[in-house]
Specification:
single chain; 291 residues; alpha/beta; Rossmann fold; eight-stranded mixed beta sheet; 10 helices; 8 strands; globular
Length: 291
């Protein structure tokens, strides 16, 4: 039940995101929404985020970034984690809130950080998992999925970024009606998409993303919540098949609406409960994780 003594639910601006800081957080949830709606997550996903705040979590809402270079977006999210933790600490101190959690090792087996995504935002979270897994892959494995050119560009983009900065080790992720897309969502008109594809390629493509996921040893703390929507149907089906032995949990909510997660003052509480249940299952699985 929501704590009536909680401060009002408000987002404070950080350098690259927004944060609703809980006075006594039991964890931090990073949230990434889908295209367009995810650009303003504090507005369109407010109902869901407020309910999670009331359950004891600090929320960090990361704005959706439109790009054809999905690796670069995922990498920027990874690189920003350290700065976000520092900013959370400073804001918590200013308000007299508990802040020790933000200084803890985010890769510790003790549950403290979690990732929540919707729609195409889920692809960015999956790529963060794959960046974590990169240290386990030799170049032949990477080249077999994404080709030597893209593999080299990824290595250059990573530069001196440490694995610890990138890693989602021991950080559960929950994917809400996930969509792994190429240009379909960005350029829905077929003739125009064919023209754009002559000059621009999404990296990694749908097939490349699934290839990497199929060879990954991670995703053991990943949960998928399907809304039975047509938009996410293919992605959900493929992920369920590829990750059936690794998924922390898989749940289907017969909502039939890809945007069922949206809501400002009102929303779908069944979905909130499903997210909380997935968090509990991920917590229970952490000590036995092989990530």
């Amino acid at each position: 039940m929501p704590d009536v003594d909680l401060p009002p639910f408000r987002f404070k601006p950080l350098t690259t995101s927004w944060a609703a800081i809980h006075p006594q957080p039991q964890g931090v949830i990073f949230f990434i929404g889908g295209a367009f709606f995810g650009t303003f997550p504090t507005v369109f996903y407010r109902y869901l985020l407020r309910n999670l705040y009331q359950e004891g979590y600090t929320l960090v809402a990361l704005p959706f970034r439109f790009s054809f270079r999905h690796w670069s977006v995922a990498l920027s999210l990874a690189e920003g984690k350290t700065q976000i933790r520092q900013e959370l600490t400073e804001l918590a101190k200013q308000h007299g809130y508990s802040h020790s959690l933000y200084s803890e090792d985010p890769n510790s087996p003790a549950f403290n950080y979690l990732w929540l995504g919707h729609s195409l935002g889920c692809k960015y979270i999956a790529l963060l998992e794959l960046l974590t897994d990169r240290a386990k892959h030799d170049s032949a494995v990477l080249n077999g999925c994404i080709g030597s050119g893209q593999s080299e560009r990824l290595a250059n983009a990573l530069g001196d970024v440490s694995l610890k900065q990138v890693s989602l080790l021991n950080q559960p992720s929950i994917l809400l009606d996930p969509v792994v897309s190429d240009l379909d969502s960005a350029v829905p008109i077929k003739s125009l998409r064919a023209l754009v594809e002559r000059f621009i390629r999404v990296e990694p493509s749908i097939d490349q993303t699934y290839c990497l996921i199929s060879r990954s040893q991670l995703f053991a703390l990943t949960s998928v919540i399907s809304f039975t929507s047509q938009l996410a149907k293919e992605t959900v089906s493929i992920l369920e098949e590829l990750l059936k032995l690794q998924l922390s949990s898989f749940k289907t909510l017969p909502l039939g609406n890809h945007l069922a997660v949206l809501g400002f003052n009102r929303g779908n509480f069944e979905l909130v409960e499903a997210v909380l249940h997935a968090i509990d299952k991920a917590k229970a699985r952490l000590p036995d994780s092989h990530r």
